[in-house]
Amino acid sequence: MTTWLQHVKKVHAAGSTSFKESLKRASVSWKKQKAGKKKGAVKASIAEPEAAPAPKKKKRRKRVKKSMPKIPAEVYKSVDSRNL
C-alpha cells in the first residue's frame, strides 16, 4: 500500500467523515508533512556513504534514411505514360 493511502486511512480513522472529505483533509496535512520529510531525508542521505556513480549509457544513433537515387532526365523522356 502506498504511503498516501496509509495517510488517508489514518485521517479517515481519526475523524467521522466520508472518505471523500477525508481525502481533502489528508491533502492539506500531507503537503505540510511532505515538506518536513524532505529536510529529514537530506540529513539521512548525508550520513550514508555515497555509492559509485552509475556508468553513462551510450546514446543510440538515429538511422539515416537513404534518399532515392537520382534518375537522369534522359530516362524520363523515354518513359511512355500510356504503357505504365
Q: What's a concise summary of this model?
A:
The chain is mostly helical and 84 residues long. It has a domain at 1-12 and 20-36.
**Ends: how far apart?**
68 Å
Task: Indicate the proportion of strand residues.
Answer: under 5%
- Radius of gyration (Å): 33 Å
Describe the main β-sheet briefly.
Answer: none
For the secondary structure, the number of strands is 0
Individual helix count:
3
Low-confidence stretches: 39-45
Order of helices and strands: HHH
Classify the secondary structure makeup into a structural class. mainly alpha
**Portion of residues in helices?**
55-70%
Look at the structure and give the mean pLDDT. 76
Outline: elongated
What does this structure look like?
The chain has 84 residues and is mainly alpha-helical. It has a domain at 1-12 and 20-36. Helices cover 56% and strands 0% of the residues. It contains 3 helices and no strands. α1 (3-14) crosses α2. The longest helix is centred in the middle third of the chain and has 29 residues, at 19-47. The chain is elongated, with a radius of gyration of 33 Å. It starts with a helix and ends in a 6-residue tail after the last helix.
